[in-house]
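Look over this record before class:
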Amino acid sequence: MQKFQTLTGVAAPLNIVNIDTDMIIPKQFLKTIKRTGLGQSLFFEMRYTQDGREIDGFVLNKPAYRKAEILIAGDNFGCGSSREHAPWALLDFGIRCVISTSFADIFYNNCFKNGILPITVSPENLKKLLDDAERGSNATLTIDLPNQEVRGPDGGVIRFEIDPFRKHCLLNGLDDIGLTLEKAAAIDAFETRQKAAQPWL
């Protein structure tokens, strides 16, 4: 998993509440078990017409936001079904951080397992960040995970809270497999002892 430490990138405003996982990546794209290739279908029904043409008014289709790495979203982001394809699609598009006032629990947990930082802020701070994000290509934010700060284009700073263990995992690029591999020496030692003590197993 890619480490997350400090990210400076364009923030796209998506001020819609209750964006569910089917809106993030519709069900017809869930057949794959690969984590790549889903970015082109992110927010599919909002980004494209029925005949496959881009909808000009959708934020990620606007030239200033095509390479956005940060998403500023409305309340209750990631609700709905528990599909892990939702963070896969965001990450494949290039989104490394989502900021909202609240997240659905399963989506929130899946973000950390895939190297995306979900940040929860107050409604007042979300409004400030949405205002910053409306600046188009000048909507550049810096996400400083070590110091737990979001820094705006005018120098404003918003602090955020994060569980220390999850912070450690993101900073070091550790998913569940990576965490297990950190204990590889202890696991090998246990297996050696177990084989000597119970060779019939």
